[in-house]
Amino acid sequence: MAYGIDAFSFLNRKFKVFILLIFGTILVVSWATVNRNRSVVANEARISQRVLEDMKENLQKYNIETFDEKLKPLELRIANLENKERKYPPVKYLSEKDRKRILVTGGAGFVGSHLVDALLMAGHEVTVVDNFFTGRKRNIEHWIGHENFELLNHDIVEPVLLEVDQIYHLASPASPPNYMYNPIKTIKTNTLGTLNMLGLAKRVHARLLLASTSEVYGDPEEHPQREEYWGHVNPIGPRACYDEGKRVAETMCYAYAKQDHVEVRVARIFNTFGPRMHMNDGRVVSNFIMQALEGKPLTVYGSGKQTRSFQYISDLVNGLILLMNSDFSQPVNIGNPVEYTIMEFAEMISATVGGKTMISNVAKMEDDPQRRKPDISRARKYLGWEPKVPLLVGLNRTIAYFKKELDKSKKSKLIDL
Ligand SMILES: NC(=O)c1ccc[n+]([C@@H]2O[C@H](COP(=O)([O-])OP(=O)(O)OC[C@H]3O[C@@H](n4cnc5c(N)ncnc54)[C@H](O)[C@@H]3O)[C@@H](O)[C@H]2O)c1
């Protein structure tokens, strides 16, 4: 201590006062800071308390908690979507020059959805216009969100304005139960709808391909059917809304080609089958497969001696794309010329599905064509096209698809219960 007193003793009085003042100031400033902090904390606590009270009041008043709870799964879904990059089928890169903007009417249907797959994978930009009368979003859902894909829920009986280079015009109910369900609507779709699409093609200088049908030959008296054959159609029968609808749609195409120089292509499509066809559309392929899978007798209308030829969906899609991009503007049959009687076909499906399937004959349908077989010389000559997929290969793929669909619907019935 003595050493300490001695140590300070050499400092003069003024300096000692100065040091005391500094210590004093430090003490006063520290006391003020502590006090200020105390009051800030108290203030914050007061505010938090008020916020909390407000929140409680609002939560009770507006039931926000329940609302937040409801939003949670959605937020989770968004987070999952952001984390997981969506996987799309592989798409070829096409330069600006080669990439086309393509409209597919009826693109959510059986044929349309397969065509959309092929066009997108080839690198084009595709817009689907569909009113979902017989089509399903599920058929094209694997493209939703892709930058080259657009989907419009629209009825083609009303006009639509789009900028496109090509139009594949497929929109129309295609199976007898579907087109007979509302014959006037079927006529409107094939007449007014086709006029709207031709008007669009004219405005934007797009090429239009019409998905016509072997039904334009009606119950043919010429066999096999060549494109030059004018057909044998009952204009007032139950199928007329479709048959005559397609016939006048063809007439409209060639009128627009002649008068307004619209580039048209007409595909006369024969019976086509494959995955994504409707399970209950009443057509022979789906009828037989469903009946065989459910262990029911296969219903054959009439004697079963009437013939059909069946092409697999991928063959049709190739044919449509080749025709659209060809220089040939007259109608072209796209179908498989290998002919089977309905009875042979029933036996083939029964054997492929397995099990013991009975065949039951019921009364002949009105206006049911007796023979159907395309002459495909034009397609061979002008498109270099012919079907490649053998019937049995196509049938196996289609049966596998139907089995999966049946399993899904069984599972969803269980969930409903
Ligand atoms: N599948 C065949 O065996 C076959 C044979 C000959 C011709 N075709 C023709 O091919 C085309 C496609 O047939 P599919 O078997 O895919 O039939 P589908 O019923 O599966 O597809 C037709 C699509 O057109 C849509 N559509 C119907 N009316 C419409 C409207 N007014 N506006 C917008 N969209 C509409 C439907 O919702 C559906 O998505 C049809 O024009 C049909 O006449 C098909």
Automatic annotation (TrEMBL):
<keyword id="KW-0333">Golgi apparatus</keyword>
<keyword id="KW-1133">Transmembrane helix</keyword>
<dbReference type="GO" id="GO:0032580">
    <property type="term" value="C:Golgi cisterna membrane"/>
</dbReference>
<dbReference type="InterPro" id="IPR016040">
    <property type="entry name" value="NAD(P)-bd_dom"/>
</dbReference>
<dbReference type="GO" id="GO:0070403">
    <property type="term" value="F:NAD+ binding"/>
</dbReference>
<dbReference type="GO" id="GO:0048040">
    <property type="term" value="F:UDP-glucuronate decarboxylase activity"/>
</dbReference>
<keyword id="KW-0325">Glycoprotein</keyword>
<comment type="similarity">
    <text>Belongs to the NAD(P)-dependent epimerase/dehydratase family. UDP-glucuronic acid decarboxylase subfamily.</text>
</comment>
<feature type="domain" description="NAD(P)-binding">
    <location>
        <begin position="103"/>
        <end position="392"/>
    </location>
</feature>
<keyword id="KW-0456">Lyase</keyword>
<keyword id="KW-0520">NAD</keyword>
<dbReference type="InterPro" id="IPR044516">
    <property type="entry name" value="UXS-like"/>
</dbReference>
<keyword id="KW-0210">Decarboxylase</keyword>
<keyword id="KW-0472">Membrane</keyword>
<dbReference type="Pfam" id="PF16363">
    <property type="entry name" value="GDP_Man_Dehyd"/>
</dbReference>
<feature type="coiled-coil region">
    <location>
        <begin position="45"/>
        <end position="84"/>
    </location>
</feature>
<keyword id="KW-0812">Transmembrane</keyword>
<dbReference type="GO" id="GO:0042732">
    <property type="term" value="P:D-xylose metabolic process"/>
</dbReference>
<keyword id="KW-0175">Coiled coil</keyword>
<keyword id="KW-0735">Signal-anchor</keyword>
<dbReference type="InterPro" id="IPR036291">
    <property type="entry name" value="NAD(P)-bd_dom_sf"/>
</dbReference>
<protein>
    <recommendedName>
        <fullName>UDP-glucuronic acid decarboxylase 1</fullName>
        <ecNumber>4.1.1.35</ecNumber>
    </recommendedName>
</protein>
<comment type="pathway">
    <text>Nucleotide-sugar biosynthesis; UDP-alpha-D-xylose biosynthesis; UDP-alpha-D-xylose from UDP-alpha-D-glucuronate: step 1/1.</text>
</comment>
